[in-house]
Design brief:
single chain; mainly alpha; 7 helices
């Protein structure tokens, strides 16, 4: 089976969407806890990102573009493999932030209904949801564990 940027894009999107759906509708389910909240799902996307970068981006297109200007960044993403890598980068990090927020909310006792808007915004607009969750979490302290004497 040959993978193209388009097919990998579809698979990565479906994997990320499954992760987000589980965070939203079944955050305490054992499967969700083990694969999504733990960060394992995001690590899977990180592996895909790494493979794409190492096998395609660092190859013949390595000299195209750069990070010194917006024009150079635009040149980087003219190649479909580099564009795919950039997209998987977003999917991976946004889901990792959502998993962290879910884990943190469960530890702090943040009601899931208050977490949902932050998760949705993280899914759609990354940093906006991250910011919103930081505002919400200020009202919920991490429970202190009583030490046994």
């Amino acid at each position: 089976m040959t993978f193209t940027p388009s097919t990998l894009f579809q698979y990565a999107n479906q994997a990320a969407l499954l992760g987000w759906l589980l965070l939203l509708v079944a955050p305490r389910w054992r499967f969700t806890q083990r694969l999504i909240v733990s960060g394992a799902w995001s690590l899977g996307l990180a592996v895909v990102y790494t493979v794409v970068i190492l096998s395609h981006y660092l190859g013949g297109h390595a000299s195209e573009g750069g990070f010194g200007s917006l024009t150079e960044v635009a040149a980087l993403f003219r190649d479909p493999w580099a564009l795919l890598a950039g997209w998987v980068h977003y999917l991976c990090f946004d889901l990792a932030v959502g998993a962290w927020a879910s884990r943190d909310a469960q530890q702090r006792g943040v009601p899931h209904l208050l977490l949902v808007p932050a998760l949705l915004l993280t899914f759609l607009f990354g940093p906006v949801g991250f910011l919103l969750y930081h505002v919400v979490r200020r009202w919920y302290a991490v429970p202190q564990v009583a030490s046994a004497l």
